[in-house]
Write a structure and sequence with these properties.
The complex is a heterodimer.
Chain A: E1 5-7, E2 10-13, E3 19-24, E4 31-38, E5 42-50, E6 53-57, E7 64-68, E8 74-78, E9 87-94, E10 103-104, E11 108-112
Parallel strand pairs in A: 2-11
Antiparallel strand pairs in A: 1-3, 3-8, 4-5, 4-9, 5-6, 7-8, 9-10, 9-11
Chain B: E1 4-7, E2 10-14, E3 20-25, E4 33-38, E5 45-50, E6 56-59, E7 62-67, E8 72-77, E9 86-93, E10 99-101, E11 105-110
The chains are: A mainly beta, B mainly beta.
Chain lengths: 113, 111
């Protein structure tokens, strides 16, 4: 059974650019959540999607957005990148809310220069 | 504002020792408290979880102790092994929705 797949694994972008990250959940999982992981802040919740609808949203600026497709795959987009956006972005999937059985992907390491 | 406070930041123990990682929270509405283990280059993996109506839960060598009145919970790793060397995160959520994570504890188990 394939796990949560995140692409790309590594990304280097220039300040001001925008970036799109992709997440394919475990087959059958319909809930997808995104987290930002940094050494100082740990994991911080970005947003959660279920059945193509955003259910919850964390305290991040509007430059961070996401969406979910009918096959449960999800993308997150960060516009006008800032140096502080450099982080590991993790996607987690579960069958459905409540998300007590999260499975995380290995993440996308984004570096903004 | 950190909703879940985790300590210590790092921990070194000898093989066979019992490392203890502590977490504290303020929001009494939290009703689900998982622990995650993360190895370098990998995403966090669910280790064990507890709900506030239980004071202790054991799964293999991992034990969660939960003190509802003190709003604290801790992870104990019995007979620790070098393979347990990883970063551990506690978390809390309301109804399995948005999760609030601690800042992590880097554990090193020396052979």
């Amino acid at each position: 059974k394939a796990g949560v797949t995140q692409t790309p694994r590594y990304l280097i972008k220039t300040r001001g650019q925008q970036v799109t990250l992709s997440c394919s959940p475990i087959s059958g999982h319909r809930s997808v959540s995104w987290y930002q992981q940094t050494p100082g802040q740990g994991l911080q919740f970005l947003f959660e999607y279920f059945s193509e609808t955003q259910r919850n949203k964390g305290n991040f600026p509007g430059r961070f957005s996401g969406r979910q497709f009918s096959n449960s795959r999800s993308e997150m987009n960060v516009s006008t990148l800032e140096l502080g956006d450099s982080a590991l972005y993790l996607c987690a999937s579960s069958l459905s809310p409540p998300n007590t059985g999260y499975t995380f992907g290995s993440g996308t390491r984004l570096t903004v220069v | 504002q950190q909703q879940v406070k985790q300590s210590p930041q790092s921990l070194i123990v000898q093989k066979g020792g019992i490392p203890i990682i502590n977490c504290a929270y303020e929001n009494t509405a939290f009703d689900y408290f998982p622990w995650y283990q993360q190895f370098p280059g990998k995403g966090p993996a669910l280790l064990i979880a507890i709900r506030p109506d239980v004071s202790e839960k054991k799964e293999g060598r991992f034990t969660i102790s939960f003190n509802k009145s003190a709003k604290q919970f801790s992870l104990h790793i019995m007979d620790s092994q070098p393979g347990d060397s990883a970063t551990y995160f506690c978390a809390a959520s309301i109804g399995g929705n948005q999760f609030y994570f601690g800042t992590g504890t880097s554990l090193t188990v020396i052979p």
